[in-house]
Specification:
Elements: E1 7-15, H1 19-30, E2 38-44, E3 48-51, H2 57-60, H3 63-68, E4 73-75, E5 83-85, E6 89-97, H4 105-112, H5 114-122, E7 128-130, E8 134-137, E9 140-144, E10 146-150, E11 153-161, H6 168-172, H7 178-191, H8 195-201, H9 209-224, E12 228-231, H10 236-249, H11 252-255, E13 265-269, E14 272-281, E15 284-293, E16 296-304, H12 313-321, H13 328-341, H14 351-361
Parallel strand pairs: 1-2, 1-12, 3-4
Antiparallel strand pairs: 2-6, 3-5, 6-11, 7-8, 8-9, 10-11, 13-14, 14-15, 15-16
Helix pairs in contact: 1-10, 5-9, 12-13, 13-14
């Protein structure tokens, strides 16, 4: 870390949705060993969808729904999942020289999220870091963050979320069923919060973007032990790079590029994920919809075209599994006990088949 050197700050205010992604990308791509550590801040004027670097657009986002409603979609170079962004969020982007930083991503997040945490705390909200990259308050997520290396720069992005469109978020996602979409809404509404919600619940006047910006920059200076330099515009080299980045982010080749994709999983918070998928056994199709929190079944729905006696057998199995910790032996034991205790019969579908269905759908946990 460059102790004593100034950190350049550029607060752009409200910008076109494209520039809310393009600007920090341009600064990072223009960055070199002589560049100054920089923080950019801004809010998009228009609501849009941003997908992660490794995602496949048509598997993650309901493109037709977004196009019909004029909701733009942009792929960023930062990883993570599809997110809904808008003017009720204030973005901050750290673009720092990576040679002066650790390569430990856990330490990177812990370091660069401290000024945001300090700003929240100063304004009366007890926000804390929930590893690896979430900010929480009272067990609820109030901000997701991302990081990526671009050339000579380490880029850490985050936002202050004043409000959020809980109803729109599930609609822009490509999901297997309406039931799964309903569960996304329910869990986002329950486990993701906003500045407006928390201020009201804590009896605090809702503070402005200007107020949290001032608190944030004060925390930046204090945490890094460096002065800040407030500036109004990009360097010429960054402006030139911005022209290139705008073209890149609006190209179909970039937006529709193939990436890594974990099927049927939606991340709600760092420790809460939703899954849905199918598994075919001799007795029929098994569909699993599950909410996993801290490696424990928080919610579970099993359905399919198989036969089961008694008629409430599935409900009894679900009740047995909810609260069970993930793990092949524990899950299998719970299923077998439920079959035995309730004298469940399911021709062509054995407890082993239910276990395999769960394993196949929640494959990253087994």
């Amino acid at each position: 870390m460059q102790k004593g050197s100034e950190i350049r700050i550029i607060n752009f205010g409200d910008v076109p949705f494209l520039d809310s992604q393009a600007i920090y990308h341009a600064v990072a791509h223009a960055f070199n060993s002589k560049s100054r550590d920089t923080i950019t801040m801004m809010s998009p004027r228009q609501t849009y969808v941003s997908i992660g670097f490794f995602q496949e657009l048509e598997k993650e986002v309901d493109v037709e729904y977004c196009q019909e409603r004029g909701i733009p979609i942009i792929r960023r170079e930062v990883g993570g999942g599809a997110v809904l962004l808008g003017n009720d969020q204030l973005f901050f982007h750290f673009i720092f020289n990576k040679k002066n930083l650790t390569r430990d991503i856990n330490k990177i997040y812990k370091m660069f999220l401290m000024p945001a945490i300090g700003a929240y705390n100063k304004l009366g909200l007890n926000v804390y870091h929930r590893p690896i990259n979430d900010l929480h308050i009272g067990g609820k997520k109030i901000g997701g963050n991302g990081a990526v290396e671009i050339g000579d720069a380490m880029v850490v992005v985050g936002s202050f979320m004043f409000d959020f469109n809980y109803k729109l978020m599930p609609k822009i996602l490509k999901v297997p069923s309406d039931k799964f979409r309903d569960k996304i809404y329910k869990n986002i509404n329950e486990y993701v919060t906003t500045i407006k919600r928390e201020c009201k619940q804590n009896g605090i006047d809702i503070f402005s973007k200007e107020k949290i910006t001032a608190a944030f920059l004060e925390e930046v200076s204090g945490f890094f032990g460096r002065k800040i330099s407030l500036e109004k515009k990009l360097y010429e080299s960054e402006e030139n790079k911005l022209i290139e980045i705008r073209k890149k982010l609006t190209s179909k080749d970039w937006l529709y590029r193939k990436g890594k994709y974990l099927d049927k999983k939606v991340k709600i918070t760092a420790d809460l994920n939703l899954y849905e998928g199918n598994y075919k056994c001799k007795g029929g199709l098994i569909r699993i919809t599950a909410a996993i929190k801290n490696n424990i079944f928080k919610d579970l729905n099993i359905s399919g075209d198989f036969t089961m006696i008694p008629s409430n057998g599935l409900k009894l199995i679900e009740q047995k599994l909810i609260g069970t910790e993930l793990g092949e032996n524990k899950v299998f034991e719970a299923i077998k006990q439920s079959y035995k205790e309730n004298e469940i019969k399911s021709p062509g579908m054995e407890p082993e088949d239910l276990l395999e269905a769960i394993k196949q759908v929640i494959m990253d946990k087994f």
